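My current task is to audit a protein record that another person submitted. What it holds is a sequence and that sequence's fold in token form. Thanks in advance; the entry in question is below.
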Amino acid sequence: MDMSCFQAKSFFGIVQRIYKLFSGSTKQWEVLKNHVKYSDRKGLTLKSWSDTRWESRISSFKAIRFQAPQIKKALIHLMENTDDAATVSDAQSLVKCLKFDLLVGMVIWYEILYKVNKVSKVLQKKDMNIDDAISLLNGLITYFEEYREKGFEEAMIEAEKIAIEMEIKSKFHETRVRSKKKFFDEIASNEPIESMEEAFRVTYFLSIVDNAISSLKSRFEQFQIYGNTFGFLFNLSKLSSLDTESLKYSCDTLETFLQHGDNYDIDAVEFFSELQLLRKSLPEGTTKPNEVLEYIKNIHICFPNTWIAYRILLTIPVTVATAERSFSKLKLIKNYLRSTMLQDSLSGLASYLSKKKVLANLDGSSIISKFALQKARRIEI
């Protein structure tokens, strides 16, 4: 989503350049700290963003989003009080990049990443089920569809406030309009002339938001397939309110979904009878699928099909990970004792440690014998 247009790539590059400049030395970092300590949002610091950790992006943007005026003053201070030519050049270049279109993009990106990050963290919970995931994704899609209509004007207003504080003109940077070659049967006046603000809205704002909506809908459709199949088991109030025909249809649909050739995981007829009995015998206050599974745990002989269906339901993964972590297996093994190890050897060692349980069950004697023969320095006569 972040690379959906050229301006987005440039924006992410500027954010990373600001971090690298101030983190280049302790003296430059101290200059930044001295300026941002007067900000209303204390405790925010510049951070590098990672390609693999989604949350790192919102962390890196948050400091710039709410401390942009202070960061500009810190860059100007480096320009005027630093002897290093490279540092002065980098600071001057970044100050020139701090224009109104960058501020608008910054406000837009923070709004998008903040909302996505909030939903992403909830989806990574261990007790998250697909029903709640569908509801969250649907709500996020609805929010972005509304944001698509009104978000640009709101971002413009917020960016103008920041621009006033930074003493930047609230005007989009003008670039040369690319002319299109006209053929003999075309009329030049038919091509509309767009303002820089409208061009930015179309090529930047709409491109990013549409890309986000498309990605979310793709994931929502995958969850919706399971929702249509297991939906009547998610919500116990819905299960209790289903009439006989609707319940039979849902049981038949689930039986077909869990069919593997000529094998069936559940029997629709028996499953229908079990659910009729279960609806009447569930304790009051039972609202979640895991509570149903816990209830029939000791009496699953009476509800064999229900026992199978709810176990399948509750083991369908919502996300591929419970949470993101800032460390990796590679960081754990690459200590000072292995600082001179070549990349190929280090990658091989990391793979070995990641698959340690699998490799422990393999017989390595034949591999060792082949390796010894290939590396033998003496040839048998």
